[in-house]
Amino acid sequence: MLLTWLLCKEIPMASLPAQTLFTAEEYITQERKALHKSEYLDGQIFALSGASRVHSLITGDIFNSLYNQLVGSDCEVHSSDMRVRPSPIAYFYPDVVVACGEPRFEDDVYDTLLNPIVIS
Predict the structure, then answer these.
(1) Which of 8, 21, 55, 76 has its CB 3.0 to 4.6 Å from that of 43, i.e. a possible disulfide?
(2) What is the reported pTM?
(3) Domain layout of the chain by residue ranges
(4) Alpha-carbon gap, residue 116 to 97, rounded angstroms
(5) Over its length of 120 residues, how does the chain's per-residue pLDDT go in tens digits?
(6) Residue 92's beta-bridge partner residues?
(7) Which helix (H) or strand (E) holds 45?
């Protein structure tokens, strides 16, 4: 509703509230303590909501299909609980992630994958 109002209303930019930006390090520190997941993009943090039934079913089908095709390979399939960092300014929780070869992680907590080859 606020976005609709902002798009329809002419407001001088100085009237908009200042946005707090966070460093990637601040995000990770906060995220590891948080009860709910959020994503990070270029200083901004976005709370994640739950998925719909249909979304969950589709995600499960994709995960199962990839897992079954990759059994016996050097690839791992991860669910939406695996955070990825595809660039220095972004952290995401994709629905399904595939990493092949030796997985690389951001640090010794092993909760942020750096080398996904498939993100869905």
Answers:
(1) 21
(2) 0.81
(3) 19-119
(4) 6
(5) 333 333 444 445 455 567 899 999 999 999 999 999 999 999 999 999 999 999 999 999 999 999 999 999 999 999 999 999 999 999 999 999 999 999 999 999 999 999 999 999
(6) 84
(7) strand 44-47
